[in-house]
Amino acid sequence: MVAQTLLSEVGLDMSRWKTESHFASWLGLCPDNRISGDKVLGRGTRRVVNRAATALRQAANTLMRSRSYLGAQYRRLRTKLGAPKAITAMAHRLARLVYRMLKYGQTYIDRGTEYYEERFRQQQIQLLRKRAAKLGLKVAEIHA
Which of 21, 24, 136, 137 is the least crowded, having the fewest Cβ atoms under 10 Å away? Predict the structure, then answer.
């Protein structure tokens, strides 16, 4: 249903938007900081009435139980940001993927939850090594 809604609202021709960022902004899934005099007056996303954006948000919400790379990413964002912001962030990610698939014909290859978790673990180890190096310490790995 999400794919049908997207195709009926957006169509197959992606030449209307220069980049995937323009597409996500048109959907209203990008941050919109209202700034005056270098002071941020308000944050959030623009209010846009768009069925395609609503469909992407619904698709992002269903990632909670998904055993995919995107599902693992959504669960991590949800614990960090909270549900509403995580849904918008994942809808933005899905919009970018849809744009690439329709404009360039790229296929989406899901690498799974295990790949995401291992990648995240390696990133955390690298971050700890950098922090330890700043303090003049070394991190030693102990294999059990």
Answer: 136
